[in-house]
Amino acid sequence: MRTPYVAGNWKMNLDRRAAGELAAAVRDHAADGVHVGLFPAMVHLDEVTRITAGSHVRVGGQNCSDQVSGAFTGEVSAPMLKDIGATVVLLGHSERRHVYGETDAFISSKVRRALEDGLDVMLCVGETIEQRKDGQTETVCRTQLAAGLDGVERSALERVTIAYEPVWAIGTGETASPEQAGAVHTYLRGILAGMYDDDAAAAMRILYGGSVKPSNAKELMAVPDIDGALVGGAALKPETFLPIIDAAR
Ligand code: PEP
Fold this sequence. Notes:
42% of the residues lie in helices and 15% in strands. By secondary structure, it is of the alpha/beta class.
């Protein structure tokens, strides 16, 4: 059985006070049965890890360097994230891929670095609208998944979560239907089985992300291969995020 996982990607939003208040609301709501993750802006990690310490909430960075330390101005390393109390890092988000030009090879080196340095990883994959219209959805997702997990041992897989996030559904209000999302999740699980084995693929959680909200969360997460949600906009307020956690129960 895969425990459902609902995570909030706060992106570059919220000031310190608002981040702390939201973290406290999520902490007070989180309980057994659903894993809950929060990805605040780097500067709020300290506050959010402090507020959620000892609770069911896991806290992560939205990105990290593929290097451990050194002359890399503006970067934050996996050991630094760990040191501040983060246990997980989001890698390969579509905004990193498409706004900042991160390549599969670069993301892959970050995944390996993060796992090696003791962080769990949430690896995002997903196609653009042009790629979907062009019939490239499976190829794109397969390529991103295979590259992202390149060099990752089977024994490390229990520390990896996949998030399928069609780019056309992120922040647009347009959501993949349960059928569209479910088809890609099932496809990805098959790819994982091919890369590793059936047991490893069956144990891995694949979350859906892209305009998840209280009104569509339940039907999406009812799909057998959808193990939870990575939530952007709706994760910024308790009144929209907490019902999504409940929908995963
Ligand atoms: C995201 O950025 O990971 C995301 C899913 O955003 P939204 O829920 O706003 O579409």
